[in-house]
Give the backbone structure.
Amino acid sequence: MKPLLSRVPVILIVLLLFSCPDTRSQTTGENTILQDANIPSSEQTRAMIECLKPKGWKIQDEVEVYKPINLYEKINGRAEYYLSYDMVWAIFAEFRRGSDNRLPIKLTVFNMGNPTHAFGVFSGERSMGVPQLNIGRDSYCSKTGYYIWHGQYYIQVNASDTTGKIEQACLDLAHTLTEKLVDSGQPVAGLKILPSENLVSQSVQFFLVDALGHTFLKNTYTAKYAKGNMEIPVFLSCQDSPALAEEIITKFKGHVKKYGKGVDPVSVDDIEVLVCDMGRYYDVIFQKGSSIGGVAGLKDKTQAIAASIDFYKKLSIE
C-alpha cells in the first residue's frame, strides 16, 4: 500500500506548502497537544507574523528576530530588563497603511520561555489603574499602546495614534495574534497561592531576580492588600526547599544587621516572625515551608506584625 501522503492531490500539497503557519494548539479531552509537541521556533513564529494583515495594512520591511545575545542592538538601554527574565527571543514587525508612512503600528512579541516569566515582564511594565482589555490571560491599554500577557508571550502593539481605524487595526492585530500563538495553560504559582481577599487590583508583580532591591531575593511575588484606608505591601518568595528558604532568612538578617537597627523574633498564635527594624520603617518576615513571606515598609510596628500574621494564615501553602 502506498503511503497516505502520496495519494494527496499535488495541488493540495502546493496549497499546504504556501499557506500561513498556524501555531494554535489542538485539544483532545482535557489534554492540550501543541503542534510539533512544543512551542514554535522563532522562525516559525516570524513566518506566521508575516502573514498577519490587518485590513488596509501591510508589513513594512523585514520582520526581525533577536536573541539574547543581540537584543541590545534593537532596544539598547532596555534590553537588560527582558534579559533579566530569561528572554528566549523577540520578534519586531512594523505595519504601514498603504503608502502612508506617518502612523505606523509597531508589533513586538517576546517569548519569555514560560508563563511566569512572561507575567513578570508584563506586570513590571504595567501601571496600576490602567484600563484592562479582554485579550490573552491579561492585558491593558495605555495611551497609544496595547500590552498583552498570553502564556509565555508578552506582546506589545504600539501606534503613534489610536483613533478610529488605527485603534481597530491595533485591536484586530492583537486578537488575531493571540488566537494563533499557543498558550500552554501552565499556571503561575504565585497567582494561585496569593490570597484573593482584599487584593488590590493590578498590584501583583513577579521578580525573577533582585526583588525589593535585594540581590539574594529571587522568584518573588509582590502585591498590595487593602485594609481600611491602608495598603499593605506584601511579598512571597518561592524557593525549592526549606533549606534554601532558611538561607534567604539568614541573608535577610545580615542585611538588617548591616543597614538596619536590629531583628527581633516574635511569636503570635504559634507563628514565628522576624521583626526587622530598618529605622524609618519595619519589615516583618516569616518562613512557611519552602517559601519566605512577609510585609515590607510599614511605619507602625504593631500593624506590621499583625499584617504579617494575617498574611501567613491566609497563604495556601504548607
Confidence is low (pLDDT under 50) at residues 1-37. The chain has two domains: 9-180, 189-314.
